């Protein structure tokens, strides 16, 4: 009985492999087309960033405008926004806020998941989930009233970093909460505790490593949010030396005159670092998964 | 257990240190460093941001003050709200006229004693105190491209020959006969329709406030000569718009202005601020502004543009602005209006039309030149600055429907009267 | 036992959750209650005095028909967007975790729309709708076409399209993490037991990805409900103010029309609606959770 099945399978298998290869190829083609549609707007940004204003309005689809290919938008955008300075600010703020968010949120999610009956856990978690639906505009004026009007702590990178963390912990805790619940078996922790590790060490040596894929996801989502955020930094940072990229570029699109060429050049300049970060973290997600697979 | 407690203390300590650092940093940034006075200027006119930044540097060096210029993409009122809530007002803020009325009494210092006050008709006073310094004069009317008209009709274009709606219809049909299919561009922006065109109906009344009150009491707008006259002209504009129906509503301002600059169309309703956009498309220099042609000439509307002071500076009066800063700010306003370098900057660098009589410099841009000409000849109908804040948005939406051909004039008139009937009339004066 | 002592519980909680909770409370909870207080005043946003007016702002909010219109519109937009976002995201996630060649490349590609913020994204798409699509339409039909943004339904469609385009890649990332979290051995076991791919998906994988679904649906719902940046830069409420979504109405009410108290009250009502929807989703998700 058993040997019979194996022989049939080898016949079947060859056909199946061919069919699979065809399906595979078809799928890749379909995905590629879809991807092209997805990134087409960015292609437009890319080509138009090198055109003059009148070409952008007159012939948006051409790859090189009739006034020719020009780097003028880039040089002028870089100069107007003080690119290197604002880039440095954005980088420092984004990196520190992202790292802090991941650390404090993973910790908080852990204690909440493992002690769901504690009042503090229930309260903290429901407040955080509920807070995700508060429109930021509601908090804007009260926030600056408290931290500017009463405490006078605005205009500092550290304040901005801590505020970024405060606003993003709810989403991050929410995501880590789900991940710990489904992907971290309690048995592993119990084993570590029998070996004499405290909760703190158990968390960092056993639990956190299993959270790497989620941590990478949170890192990407938050890093992007921080990198691109305009409203909060514009409220907190009033000193020009502390400006981040989005604040520095906003002057390019005003109500009465929008220099689309400059906007597009600035866009590309702002996008590049985050794209590189994403590609780097992408590998990390894959690595995290292989590490996670060991647990099974 | 002991270990856990250690960790716990460490984590708590880290939090405390972080919060302490947060507090410390803020405390430092509040105070001014050095002995040089530092003033901050909020600019809400994005097209002069780079010129202002350069000015801040050169003015700062020559006058020994540290000047910093800021701009925000946010609504002026929202931005001001956050600045005042945070106790970080700018020394000098550039706002719209209506903001001076709403903010000035509480937040602005009295400028009545300044030298420039007698040099302009455009300063804003609230309760007998001069609070708002006019930054520039701006006016609305019909922008024309004379080169484009000449090219099609073969004749030199003299705007003073177009007085009435019928004159205007004539030149439109000449242009069409010459091959220009759609000689007009209409901006669909709600502020253009309901903050610029529609208010002319109020502004060209002998008493705008009384007129609005009559609408509030339910007067028939369709019976008003001004309304009929202006809307007759608007119909000519609308019917000859290069974009019709739905297209009129998605027409982008940049495209319309490019068409005008290139001479594909010949007329557009707008103001001298449009030059900042037109100028990006290698426009012909032979452009200008003329009054909106109308058949009804009561109030001499055929000879006048509508406009006046636009954008106002006020100086903060709170504890956050020291006396030295107020003094430096006053000196800056004085420099801008009365001194030669300042006057030159306004006209030649920022390309604004100065609201100050002593500033006799020739304006370079053609639209500004027209405005200056009308202003000097006292041919400007005043802006009505007391419209409620939602006027342009609510009635702009209705006006857009009219532009798209989705409702008729009587319906629009009805909506305007309904708007005023429901209004609490708090702002009207 | 030590684990039942209150001091132990408090210590444990503070050790792990202390920093997160303190920061969260400082920037969200405190301003929230201050904002709540402001809804009972007739403050205009800049005046020095904040006169107390009781529930007047709430009465005004309930009487503001434009607000309820905007809310209704937001519901329609959100429901359609959430369904489409999640369907597209799930399929994308499935495809890019099924072992295709270059799947990492695809993952990166589909995520790209998220690399730039809502405001800028709106400008890019406005450009696409008003210039690129129109230019293509003109080339194809020979006559100049109208932009979708000029009609009421077109503007709504545009908002939905861009939202799906943007969030599909984002939610895909969460679904990818979900797929990764499912043990391959479980799926293999199911296949060996004679399940087809579809059955394995339905009976084994999807139930195990419940938390991903809850997260994605919750996130996409709340984001759609609170859409502002995209609304502002893509349609600005036009045409005829028929694409003004709830958050934009609230913002305009508070800052453009300078009715801060009423705007804040309307925002609070929006918050309560969102919170109720969110809580229901999380509750339903929790109830059916696979007991691990």
Q: What's this model, at a glance?
A:
The complex is a heterotrimer of chains A (296), B (429) and C (292). Chain A is mainly α and 296 residues long. In chain A, 78% of the residues lie in helices and 0% in strands.
Tag the structure with descriptive keywords.
heterotrimer, A: mainly alpha, MetI-like fold, 2 domains, 13 helices, 0% strand, flat, disordered C terminus, B: 429 residues, alpha/beta, D-Maltodextrin-Binding Protein, domain 2, 18 helices, MetI-like_sf (chain A), Sugar ABC transporter permease (chain A), membrane (chain A), transport (chain A), cell membrane (chain A)
Please, could you describe this protein's structure?
The complex is a heterotrimer of chains A (296), B (429) and C (292). Chain A is 78% helix and 0% strand. Chain A is mainly alpha-helical and 296 residues long. In chain A, helix 3 crosses helix 13 and helix 8 (186-194) runs antiparallel to helix 9. Chain A is flat and about 75 Å long. Chain B contains 18 helices and ten strands. Chain B has helices spanning 2-30, 49-63, 76-85, 97-107, 146-153, 165-177, 190-197, 199-203, 208-216, 225-239, 246-250, 253-262, 275-278, 323-338, 340-349, 366-376, 391-403, 409-422, and strands at 38-43, 66-71, 92-95, 124-126, 129-145, 184-185, 267-271, 287-290, 305-315, 380-381. Chain C is mainly alpha-helical and 292 residues long. Chain C has one domain: MetI-like (MetI-like fold), CATH 1.10.3720. Chain C is flat, with a radius of gyration of 23 Å. The two termini of chain C are 26 Å apart. The interface between A and C is large, with 96 and 96 residues.
Using DSSP, what is the number of strands of chain C? Answer: 0
Q: What distance separates the N and C termini of chain B? A: 74 Å
Strand content of chain C: under 5%
SSE order of chain C, as H and E? HHHHHHHHHHHH
CATH class of the largest domain in chain B: Alpha Beta
What is the CATH architecture assignment of chain C?
A: Orthogonal Bundle
Q: Which fold does the CATH topology of the largest domain in chain B refer to?
A: D-Maltodextrin-Binding Protein, domain 2
Give the quaternary arrangement of the chains.
heterotrimer
CATH superfamily of the largest domain in chain B: Periplasmic binding protein-like II
* Low-pLDDT segments, ≥5 res of chain C: none
Q: Overall pLDDT of chain B, averaged? A: 85
The CATH homology group name of chain C: MetI-like
Supply Rg of chain B: 25 Å
Task: Give me the count of strands of chain B.
Answer: 10
Please give the most extensive interface between any two protein chains, plus how many residues each contributes: A-C, 96 and 96 residues
Largest sheet of chain B: 10 strands, mixed
Helix content of chain C: over 70%
**Which class do the helix and strand fractions of chain C yield?**
mainly alpha
Shape field of chain B: globular
